[in-house]
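Hi team,

As requested, here is the filled-out complex form for the uridine-5'-diphosphate run. I kept the field names the same as last time so the parser does not choke. Let me know if anything looks off before we queue the next batch.

— J.
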Amino acid sequence: MKILVTGGAGYIGSITSAELIRAGHEVIVIDNLYQGHRAAVPPEAVFIEADLADRKTLSEIFAAYPGIDGIMHFASYTLVGESMEKPFLYLRDNLTNAANLLEAAIAAGVRRFILSSTANLFDRPERIPIAEHERIVPGSPYGESKFFIERTLHWMARIYGMRYACLRYFNACGDTPDRGEDHDPETHLIPIVLQVALGQRPHVTIFGDDYPTRDGTCVRDYIHVLDLASAHILAMEALDRLGERRYNLGNGQGFTVREVIETARKVTGHPIPAVVGPRRPGDPAVLVASSDTIRAELGWQPQYPDLETIIASAWEWHRTHPYGYDDK
Ligand code: UDP
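And here is what came back:
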């Protein structure tokens, strides 16, 4: 298939692009390089530096590359905390950019779409692990923007026959030898912990140790980025028979912040000092996914569910790329 990947220079988008190419698909990447890295885009992919805010350029891209079979939409503002400080980046830009993309795609006859969605739809889950039928309570403008795009896709299906899947990632992590997580500023737990091991930070701050969990720190479901990539590819290949789908993506097993730090100590051999700080606003105590639906419907099976394997893969990339792509 010929797949348009927005945000294909970013962390999950670039690794999924590389996996698409490995599976024999053709990839066209659009990225504005605001967070992404040109060096992360696989050399076999077509790369177009463009912004989804620019509707004219989007129409030109679809005209210049006819026969696009499907879209994977990764390009987005993605931080819960930032969305509480700059809500309009999310409630305006994320929404408008997705609408621009969908409008141009529909005009060009594209009818397959995979959305990067989020566990932030489930701010107050009543049942753990969290299944797709759990009540949706977005935890932030970020989660709300993804929920709105999921709803937009529903109407695109009703009105234009769009076939789509919304993939709600829990905690994406892990790297491949060639591509990895490189955000500026970095806010995610595993890369921060590895920056401590590299001597780039004196310690990691644990955001609260008074949660109702086994050691008082938050529990998250860490899922390897390659397992997310395989879910995208399986979903895209099956969309014609699926129609409309929403899948929660995780390993179904939760680890506390302290367990992540302890595992990173074991993997890196570094003491990784940790200090306890206040809670981070907006953090639910426990987020663990039930991925039974995608396992049953698509035969998806995570290949890297083990936390030590995940952190070792991230350590391999961070150790060999201590300054990330070093292009900013
Ligand atoms: N966390 C932490 N210290 C940090 C970064 C994160 O204690 O410097 C915690 C955070 O409160 C959450 C977990 O680690 O419970 C995972 O956070 P991350 O930002 O990686 O992902 P999120 O769960 O927000 O998607």
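Two things worth flagging: Residues 155 and 239 are 16 Å apart (CA to CA). The first strand starts at residue 2 and ends at 6.

Thanks,
J.
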